Amino acid sequence: MLGWSQLSNGELLTEKNFEVLVTTDRNLAHQQNLSGRRIAILVLPTTNWLRLHAIAARIATELESLTPGSYREVPNH
């Protein structure tokens, strides 16, 4: 058990045990201060598994190209 339920807003962004945070929260960049972090962030366009499956190759490419501290949104098309 990782104890994530105990973390407050923004603490996941400073988590040192992970290299990438994958989320569908398209407002994250407006809700959190993203400067100075090492974790890369990839924002997916949907939570729908069928749509995600259809763009799985694009998601994999995006994941492979992320660098520490980068922020990228997968386009919604």
Keywords:
globular; alpha/beta; 3 helices; about 80 residues
List the helices and strands and how they pair.
Elements: E1 20-23, H1 28-31, E2 40-43, H2 49-54, H3 56-65, E3 71-73
Parallel strand pairs: 1-2, 2-3
Structure in words:
This protein has 77 residues and is an alpha/beta fold. It has a domain at 25-77. It contains three helices and three strands, in the order βαβααβ. Strands 1-2-3 form a three-stranded parallel beta sheet, with no helix packed on it.
What is the structure about, briefly put?
With 77 residues, this protein is α/β, with parallel strands linked by helices. Helix content is 26%, strand content 14%.
Question: Which range best describes the helical content: under 10%, 10-25%, 25-40%, 40-55%, 55-70% or over 70%?
Answer: 25-40%
User: What distance lies between the first and last C-alpha atoms, to the nearest angstrom?
Assistant: 36 Å
The run of helices and strands is EHEHHE
Please state roughly what percent of the residues sit in beta strands, choosing from under 5%, 5-15%, 15-25%, 25-35%, 35-45% or over 45%.
Answer: 5-15%
Number of helices: 3
Low-pLDDT residue spans? none
Based on secondary structure, the structural category is: alpha/beta
Strand order of the largest sheet: 1-2-3
Radius of gyration: 13 Å
Main sheet characteristics: 3 strands, parallel
Record field, number of beta strands: 3
What multimeric state do the chains show? single chain
Question: What's the overall geometry?
Answer: globular
- The averaged pLDDT comes out at 85
